[in-house]
Amino acid sequence: MPVSFLTSEGYQKLQEELEYLRTTRREEVAQRLHEAIEGGELLDNAELEAAKNEQAFLEGSIKELEILLATARVVDDSEVDREVIQIGNTVTIQEEGSPEEVYEIVGAAEADPAEGKISNESPMGRALLGKRVGDLVQVDAPAGPYVVKVLKVDL
Question: The pTM is what?
Answer without folding.
Answer: 0.70
